[in-house]
Amino acid sequence: MSETGPWGYRDGRAPPPVANLSADDAPRPARQADTDDKGQNPTWAVVSTLLLGGMIWLFSGSAIVAGSAIFGLFVHEYGHVLAMNRLGMGPARIYIIPFLGGLAKGQRNPRSEWDGVLVALAGPAFGLLAVLPVVGLWFVTRDPEWLMGAFFIAMINLVNLAPAPPLDGSKALGPVLARVDPMLEKVALIAIGGLVVWWGVATGRYILAVFLGIALLGHLRAGAWRPSDGARLSWGQAGQSLALFIITAMACAAAAMGVLLPLAEGSPTQAVDVALRYIGVER
Fold first, then answer.
1. How many Å apart are CA 93 and CA 84, to the nearest integer?
2. How many Cα atoms sit within 13 Å of 98 on the Cβ side?
3. pLDDT of residue 26
4. Distance of CA 11 to the CA centre of its chain
5. Residues 46-59: what's their mean pLDDT?
6. Which are the contacts of 146, defined by CB distance < 8 A and separation ≥ 6?
7. How confident is the model at residue 21 (pLDDT cuts 50, 70, 90)?
8. Which of 56, 117, 141, 150 is within CB 3.0–4.6 Å of 259 for a Cys-Cys bond?
9. Residues 233, 176 contacting (CB under 8 angstroms)
C-alpha cells in the first residue's frame, strides 16, 4: 500500500511543494529539421560553370560563344525560378551540372499539371531575352562571333523544348498527351527520347546522349511520371498548353534563324543550312 493518500502522507506530514512550471519551463517538442534545399555549394557552382564553359569553348573554338551560352543558360534557368516562386514552389534554386547544363529546383511539387506546364515553358520563353544583349554587342562590335553566341542561346531554348525526358518539352507536352491517354504520353516521349539519344550518338554528342539515355531509362523505371496529388489538365488547359508550346517553339526557331541571317547575307536558305549543320544534318 502506498504511504500517500489523496490529500498527502498518511502519517500527517505535509506533502512536498509541487513545482509550478511556467510556459518557458515546460518541455518543448523537438524542433523539426529544416528540410529546405539550401542550393548548390558556391565553390562547386563556380567549378561546374567553368567546366561547362570550358567544354563549350573547346567545341566551339570561341570564348565569346562559350560566354554567351553560359549567360543564356542562367537566364533560361532563372525563368524557371521566377515561375516556381510565383506559383508557390519556391524558393527555387539553380544548379549547374558540369558538361551538361543547368537545373532549376523548387522546394515542392507544382500544385497542378497546369502549373507544371507554365514552369516548363517559362525557361525557354524567358531564356530568349538573353539573345537581345548579345545581338546588341554584335551591333556595337560587328564581330560575327556574337551572332553565333546569340544563335547558341536560341538553340539552347529550342532544344530544351524537345519532348524527350527530362527536357522541358516533355514536361510541357507530356500532360497534354496524357490528357488524351496516359499510354500515348509514354509511347510518344519514349520514342522521341530514343530518337534524341540516337541523334546525340550520330552527331558525336556522346555526353548528351549518355545523359539523356540515363534519364530515359529512369523514366521507364518510374511508376508515375509526375506527382499524383496535383490537379490534372482540363481539356481547355490542354489546348492552351499546346498553343503555348507551339508559340514558344516558333519564337525560339525564329530567333535562331533571325540571328543567322546577317551571317548568311540575308538568305533564309543559307541560314537554314547553317542551323542544320549545327544539329548535324547535311542537305
1. 10
2. 8
3. 47
4. 77
5. 95
6. 64, 68, 134, 135, 137, 138
7. very low
8. 150
9. yes
Inside any domain, residue 157:
yes
Task: Specify the pTM.
Answer: 0.83
Confirm whether 38 is domain-assigned. Answer: no
Q: Which cell is 126 given? A: 524567358
- Split into its structural domains, the chain has a count of 1
Convert the pLDDT of each residue in 192-207 to its tens digit: 989 989 988 988 888 8
Has residue 13 been placed in a domain?
no
Taking the C-alpha atoms of residue 46 and residue 41, their distance in angstroms, rounded to an integer, is 9
pLDDT value, residue 5: 45
Q: Scan for cell 529546405, then name that residue.
A: 36
pLDDT at 78: 97
Q: What's the CA gap between 204 and 95, in Å, rounded?
A: 25
DSSP letter string over 84-118?
HHHTT--S-EEEEETTTEEEEE-SS--SBHHHHHH
Evaluate whether residue 219 is within a structural domain. yes
Q: Tell me the average pLDDT across 33-56.
A: 87
First to last CA, the chain: 101
Q: Provide the pLDDT confidence category of residue 208 given band limits of 50, 70 and 90.
A: confident
